[in-house]
């Protein structure tokens, strides 16, 4: 399967609704997961993601693929919008883990199994919180933002090799924090 040229599709989206729809459908989950991983509240994530795509529409004609890929450009809009959100907030909300992750419960699964899964997720969230801000951000971009090291490097202004090293060390730290090493 051939990789789509999202830069070209972004340029076409300025004038073509079909191209815009294709961009939105492809990038919405990536942006939503990135934002949701930070705010840990679905309603807040919905509002912020809406702002991100509104800004994308307003500035799409200004997108320049010579400066950055469309994925990087959109991720920068998302991170700036998120920064704006926190700038206007006087505090970060304390959210219960069940509010953060609310996967559909398989009725076939026993309550004991659900408890173990919730405990594992809680342990992961606590371990992530013990990492530095840069490590958390790279993990979020990689796993929730579904970005590769090159894209992460462009967003953060560091080299892809540095992203790889930081990610490797952060994952090692997570394993240690969770007692898996």
TrEMBL record:
It comes from the Bacteria. InterPro entries: RNA_pol_sigma-70-like (IPR039425), RNA_pol_sigma-70_dom (IPR014284), RNA_pol_sigma70_r2 (IPR007627), RNA_pol_sigma70_r4_t2 (IPR013249), RNA_pol_sigma_r2 (IPR013325), RNA_pol_sigma_r3/r4-like (IPR013324), WH-like_DNA-bd_sf (IPR036388). GO terms for biological process: DNA-templated transcription initiation. The keyword Transcription regulation applies. Residues 122-171 form the RNA polymerase sigma factor 70 region 4 type domain. The keyword Transcription applies. Residues 23-88 form the RNA polymerase sigma-70 region domain. GO terms for molecular function: DNA binding; sigma factor activity. Keywords: Sigma factor, Transcription, Transcription regulation. NCBIfam families: sigma70-ECF. Belongs to the sigma-70 factor family. ECF subfamily. This is RNA polymerase sigma-70 factor, ECF subfamily. It comes from Selenomonas ruminantium. The lineage of its organism: Bacteria, Bacillati, Bacillota, Negativicutes, Selenomonadales.
């Amino acid at each position: 399967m051939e990789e789509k040229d999202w830069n070209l599709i972004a340029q076409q989206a300025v004038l073509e609704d079909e191209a815009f729809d294709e961009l939105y459908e492809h990038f919405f989950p990536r942006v939503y997961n990135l934002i949701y991983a930070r705010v840990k509240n679905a309603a807040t994530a919905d509002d912020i993601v809406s702002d991100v795509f509104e800004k994308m529409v307003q500035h799409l004609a200004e997108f320049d693929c010579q400066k950055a890929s469309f994925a990087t450009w959109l991720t920068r809009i998302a991170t700036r919008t998120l920064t704006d959100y926190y700038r206007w907030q006087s505090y970060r909300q304390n959210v219960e883990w069940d509010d953060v992750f609310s996967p559909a419960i398989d009725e076939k699964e026993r309550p004991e199994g659900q408890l173990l899964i919730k405990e594992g997720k809680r342990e992961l969230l606590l371990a992530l919180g013990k990492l530095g801000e840069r490590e958390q951000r790279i993990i979020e971009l990689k796993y929730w933002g579904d970005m590769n090291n090159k894209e992460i490097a462009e967003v953060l202004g560091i080299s892809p090799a540095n992203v790889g090293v930081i990610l490797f060390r952060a994952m090692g730290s997570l394993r240690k924090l969770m007692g898996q090493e």
